[in-house]
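Predicting holo structure, (2S)-2-hydroxybutanedioic acid bound.
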Amino acid sequence: PLKTVAKMLALASVFATSFNLFAAPVEIKFSHVVAENTPKGQMALKFKELVEQRLPGEYTVSVFPNSQLFGDNNELAALLLNDVQFVAPSLSKFERYTKRLQVFDLPFLFNDMDAVNRFQQGEAGQALLNSMSRKGIVGLGYLHNGMKQFSANTPLKQPSDAKGLKFRVMASDVLAAQFDAVGAIPVKKPFSEVFTLLQTRAIDGQENTWSNTYSQKFYEVQSHITESNHGVLDYMVVTSDAFWKSLPADKRKVIKEALDESIALGNKIAAEKDNEDKQLILDSKRSQLVTLTPEERQKWIDVMKPVWAKFEDQVGKDVIEAAVAANK
Ligand code: LMR
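Done. Tokens:
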């Protein structure tokens, strides 16, 4: 019954906003968990700028960064209650709504961001945008961040170096299995808690992109970063079916175009930040870079790749094959 009431309230507010009952501009909320100086942070601000420029007096966009409004644990639920209209969780955070997207978490699947992009823009990747339609979630596009690196308070060269260490992972069983494979202890925690967990040594390490490691200052509380490029951290920009359908078709079109352009800018920033933020971390000398020889990297692949087979049924063999093929 509580759920029904919540749903009715959500529908009523969608109804009220879609028919512009109060004649004030409709507020579109965009909530995310990262800082503003990140690909996602910049993308969201660009989206605000474009929507307000193109639909003046009709729509405003309020951007809430840094888990201010909603965090990892509740942003998708909030979306379905229409408490927020746009979120862009990392692809690892949709597990409760679809298992198919876990393809992106399989360790050492994509050679580089070009391969990730080819897969996302190809037939299989585009189909995945609709993988949560039955749950009322509409995928509007992919946004890049970059490849992930391991960080810890000890140099990780061999897979055995990770044994017994606690690593924060996003809420994804694949990512947990990836650390289980090297005898480490995965701990699922929301993004907003990672810095403190590392600082207090409640956990030993984490995996993330150069951008997140820089903007969250993880490098200040981690002695070593291993340039492993073992996985990808990208996003899906999503809205709810109820909100999306409530928009008049002509406005929806303008908003979608604004989103596509913002995503293009976000992707450009992602590519730049990947190098720049890495360099800023190295220049800070707070954290030491660990580079792997091809032989050392191969050892990580050998230990972690068996994880694929465990998730093949859930993710879909066809999806995995399409992703592998994107490496060319
Ligand atoms: C993380 O939780 O580490 C990332 O998904 C945060 C983000 O949104 O980039």
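Residues 249-284 form the longest helix (36 residues).
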